[in-house]
Design a protein that fits this description.
The chain has 4 helices and 3 strands; from the N terminus they run αβαββαα. By secondary structure, the chain is α/β, with parallel strands linked by helices.
Length: about 110
């Protein structure tokens, strides 16, 4: 089901609309790259028996299957690389604090 065609500017609102659509269409499963802030909608799908696999980002308090990279390791590797090639003033632009990947990458950076 194409779920990213709804022109809603806020990604969390858009995600809720997409998850509601998937629920109404009674899909068997969902691969979810979440904004990280709509746990209640994900919980609703799980309670309906819809299987969910998280990709790239984990959700707080959600015991779901997960496929992704090691953001802490990756962030550490990138930071060390920049230091090793001579950079001394390295900035970090952090995305939303509710996403596990952003938090882990920032943790590696500091």
């Amino acid at each position: 089901f194409p779920t990213n065609e709804n022109p809603v500017p806020n990604s969390s609102k858009k995600e809720v609309i997409c998850l509601e659509t998937l629920s109404k269409e009674r899909v068997d499963g969902v691969i979810l790259v979440s904004s990280g802030i709509v746990n209640h909608e994900v919980e609703k799908l799980v309670n309906e028996g819809i299987r969910i696999v998280l990709a790239d980002r984990k959700l707080k308090n959600a015991d779901l299957s997960f496929v992704g990279s090691d953001a802490l390791y990756d962030g550490n590797l990138i930071t060390k690389y920049l230091i090793n090639i001579g950079y001394t003033e390295i900035g970090f632009i952090k995305g939303p604090t509710q996403t596990s990947t952003n938090n882990k990458r920032f943790e590696a950076y500091i």
